[in-house]
Each structure stands twice: as C-alpha cells, then as structure tokens.
Design a protein that fits this description.
Number of strands: 13
Bound molecules: uracil
Order of helices and strands: HHHHEHEHHEHHEHEEHHHHEEHEEEHEE
Mean pLDDT: 95
Number of helices: 16
CATH architecture of the largest domain: 3-Layer(aba) Sandwich
CATH topology of the largest domain: Pyrimidine Nucleoside Phosphorylase, Chain A, domain 2
Length: 433
C-alpha cells in the first residue's frame, strides 16, 4: 500500500495497522516521506484520533527510531520526571538536586522553550558556562558521581520525535492526545529510567486546557509506560496562572536557588515537595510516610543546595551564582504594569504572561532565534492577592525595547481584577497511577 493510502485510511476514520505506523515512523526517520505527506497524516490523526493500541505502536516505533540510554551501570533505581510544559515551570531544576540529595538517581533529558512555554535547558543556560549537551557517556558518569544530570535530547534518542515535533509546531498539529502522549513517552522510554513521574499541566498556559483532557492524557501516558514495563504515575496540576513569581530564564534560576534555600514561593515549594516525595516512593527506597520528611530535610539542611552546586560544577557552570545573583545576566530596563482599580487579582492568564515574556526577548518565535537570558516578567501580585489602584502587578524586564509595546499589551490583557476575593482551584488537581 502506498503512503497516500495510509493517509486516506486515517482521513476516513479507520484505524492504522502496526505496519502502517512502522512505515510512517521509518519513513520520517529516513526522510523518504515528504513533509507534506507527513503533515497530512498528522492532521488526519489530530482530527480522527488514534486508539490506545495505535498510540502504543506509534510510541514503540518512535523509541525504535533511535538508541535507548543504557543506565544499568548506574547503581540504584533511576526515576524520570517530565512536565508537559507551562509558564514559570522551573520545578525540574529544584527537584533534581533534592531527589539526588535523598539518594535517588534522577536522569533528565529536557527540552527548550516552545511557543509561550519555557524550557529547562534555556533556563540552565542562563548560568554562565553551563553545558547542556553532554555526551551519553558523560551523562552516565555524572549520574554515578552526582545522582542527577539535566541534559538536552541527543540526536540519537527518539529522532523521529524530533522531526515530527518540528513539523507539528509549524502545521498546527501539536494539540492531539495521541501525538503528545507518543512524543513524551517515546523520549521517556529512550531515557532509560526504571520509573517515571509525570506532571500533566492543565489550564490556560498548558496544551491541555480542560481537566478532562489533562486526565485523559495522563491516563494514556500511564498506560503506555506501564505496558512498556516503565512504572509510570502522573500528577495533574493547575497551569491557569504562571508558577512562582518569575518568568524568564535568569529570573527563574534565581527563584530556583531561593527555593533550594527555603525561601521559594509557596506554589513552587508545594509542587516540588509533592513530586519529589512521590519520586522517592516510586523508587522503592522510601516508604510513603518517610518520603516527605526526607524531602523537607534535604531542603532544610542545605544538602539539596549543595547537590545543585555539584550539578552546576559538573556541567561546567559558574556555581558562584548560588551565592551571588549578580553573576547571572541582568536586564537593564524595567516597565511596570499597574492595577487599574482596587480589588483582588482574580486571574493572571499564563499563556499571555508567557507571550509577554517572549515578546521582551526571553523566548523564541522560531527555533533558530537567540534568546535574551536576562529578560522576562516578575509577578508582584499573584492570583488571590489584594491590590490597590496604581500598584504594580507585573514588571517587564528587558534590554531591547522593540517588543515592549506588544509585551505591555499582552501583560495587561493577562490581568483580571475582581472586587471580591476569587475562588481559586487547588494546584494539585489529581493523580493517575
Ligand atoms: N511535550 C513533548 O515532548 N511533546 C509534545 O507533543 C508536547 C509536549
């Protein structure tokens, strides 16, 4: 059957066979299916969907498109963590050293910012000298020495995902449960961990806008992982408003360090503690009642901060940033967005704040764009907090004022003020195991 017939089959709502899916993924990796045909099939999948069986086959074919990291030489249980992406989501950078300080190995392949969402690699690269492109060999050595390492996806792991993601990004085919699940899980299965804890984001700043979709995505990823022999659990967490008070690379690094010193914002600290505790339990090393106290001790004793120091040093970065934030890039200019009335911050729409941060230079419009690590948005007032007319709610930090007009408009439109205190939904919305 020619590839046009595979596209037509999905267009007409039929299930693809395992052979169809293998042909598709092999053709993407070998670059012998033209982009327009790949895009046509992706759009047919977005519109017609895929069964769980088809999604499992797609994931498996994407894993087989490249290598799998062999972590068997690293002692102990290895637990992965992945977030489906949000605004101000710096959790991995805080969580990795905490988990390692508790004696559980956390290997982490991370991505760059995409659209309005930030990327862990871009944040870490705000630290002068920090290298995210370690070889697989260095990654394994660092996991043995330090207990954690956060690196970029190498070209040899799930290469089909890399190509498919780049096409999806420019053909409006990102928001699809089976495509997101296969994309995330192919990378996580190739990463070589023994277990995985997922943070599935839900709300304005996430790919999944509704709780129902987020729950369905979580269930799908948990079932793909479990069927492939990777113990997988998922948290569903709110992403209506940005996490923490900093959006933008160097600003978020400072917030991570503050959290490791015990002075982080409540939402970041709560999410990090919940996810890290679950990772300790899933590793099999900690009983449920012991996990959270262990995480809190790692923070309070400074051991997690020292792990962060070891991590930065191993990856060639300037660990002096932990004690002196002036060593991080700093924006020269600031612009305040003030409240128009007395009241309460009822909403701070995460995608708009993320786009405002991009507009001042903290993110990319295109994959090849250079980012300004010092730029971003500081959140002076979070949802639920009271404000007086004229008080600053958001502050834009920038060097180049070309995007300032757009950023101000986006930031202003992200804010909703109410006369009464708003009822906010909890940060942790549920779990799927
Ligand atoms: N993150 C991924 O890795 N892939 C997707 O498709 C969406 C979010």
């Amino acid at each position: 059957m020619g590839f046009i017939d595979v596209i037509a089959k999905k267009r007409d709502g039929y299930a693809l066979s395992r052979e169809d899916i293998d042909e598709f993924v092999y053709g993407v990796s070998a670059a012998n299916i033209p982009d327009y045909q790949v895009s046509a099939l992706l759009m047919a999948i977005v519109i017609r969907g895929m069964s769980d069986r088809e999604t499992g086959w797609l994931t498996d074919a994407m894993v087989r498109s490249g290598d799998r990291v062999d972590l068997s030489d690293v002692p102990g249980t290895k637990v992965g963590k992945h977030s489906t992406g949000g605004v101000g989501d710096k959790v991995s950078i805080v969580l990795a050293p905490i988990v390692a300080a508790c004696g559980v190995v956390l290997p982490k392949l991370s991505g760059r910012g995409l659209g309005h969402t930030g990327g862990t690699l871009d944040k870490l690269e705000a630290i002068p000298g920090f290298r995210v492109n370690l070889s697989v060999d260095e990654f394994i050595r660092m996991l043995t020495d330090v207990g954690t390492s956060i690196v970029g996806q190498t070209v040899s792991l799930a290469p089909a995902d890399k190509k498919l993601y780049a096409l999806r990004d420019v053909t409006a085919t990102v928001p699809s449960l089976p495509l997101i699940a296969a994309s995330v899980m192919s990378k996580k299965l190739a990463e070589g961990s023994d277990a995985l804890v997922l943070d599935v984001k839900c709300g304005h700043g996430a790919f999944m806008k509704s709780e129902t979709d987020a729950r369905d995505l979580a269930r799908l990823m948990v079932s793909i992982g479990s069927r492939a022999g990777l113990r997988t659990e998922a948290f569903i967490t709110d992403m209506d408003a940005p996490l923490g008070r900093a959006v933008g690379n160097a600003l978020e690094v400072i917030e991570c360090i503050e959290t490791l010193k015990g002075h982080g914002p409540d939402d970041i600290t709560a999410l990090v503690v919940a996810l890290a505790s679950r990772i300790l339990v899933v590793s099999g090393r900690y009983a449920r009642p012991d996990a959270e106290p262990a995480v809190r001790r790692a923070l309070a004793s400074g051991r997690a901060l020292e792990k962060m120091r070891a991590m930065i040093e191993w990856q060639g970065g300037d660990a002096g940033v932990l004690d002196d934030y002036a060593r991080l890039p700093r924006a020269a200019r600031r612009h305040a967005i003030a409240a128009g009335a007395d009241g309460y911050v009822a909403a701070l729409q995460a995608d708009l704040v993320g786009r405002a941060s991009m507009a001042v230079g903290a993110g990319r419009q295109r994959i090849e764009d250079r980012i300004d690590h010092s730029a971003g948005v500081v959140i002076a007032k979070k949802p639920g907090e009271s404000v007086r007319a004229g008080e600053t709610i958001l502050e834009l930090l920038y060097n180049d004022d070309r995007g300032l007009g757009e950023a101000s408009a986006l930031a202003s439109s992200a804010i909703r003020i109410s006369a009464e205190p708003p009822v906010l939904r909890p940060l942790l919305l549920g779990t799927v195991a």
